[in-house]
Amino acid sequence: MNLLILLAGGMMLIAAFFAVEAKKLLDSVIALSSLSLLSVFLFIIMRAPDVAITEASVGAGLTTAVLLITLFKMRGDDEE
Fold first, then answer.
1. How many CB atoms lie within 10 A of CB 39?
2. What is the reported pTM?
3. What is residue 3's three-state secondary structure?
4. I need a surface site. Which of 14, 57, 60, 80 has the fewest CB within 10 A?
5. Alpha-carbon gap, residue 29 to 32, rounded angstroms
6. Distance of CA 75 to the CA centre of its chain
7. Rounded CA gap, 73 and 53, in Å?
8. pLDDT 10s digit of each residue in the chain, 80 long?
9. Closest CA relative to residue 39, chosen from 73, 77, 72, 9
């Protein structure tokens, strides 16, 4: 169990570092989404299913959707 927590925590650190250092904004959004999904995994391991469901819906779902919509709106402004 501790090995899974350490592995997920390490992957979260890598995703967070990649989100900050990525050259493209789309890559950063994907890294942030994967970071949220990994935190959902950790919440499930810690037996907090209500927090996991909230993180999955808000962190991975809604926030990713808002960031992607914003990103595509910004690209649309550049083309005009």
1. 20
2. 0.81
3. helix
4. 80
5. 5
6. 21
7. 29
8. 789 889 999 999 999 999 999 999 999 999 999 999 999 999 999 999 999 999 999 988 999 999 999 999 988 766 55
9. 9
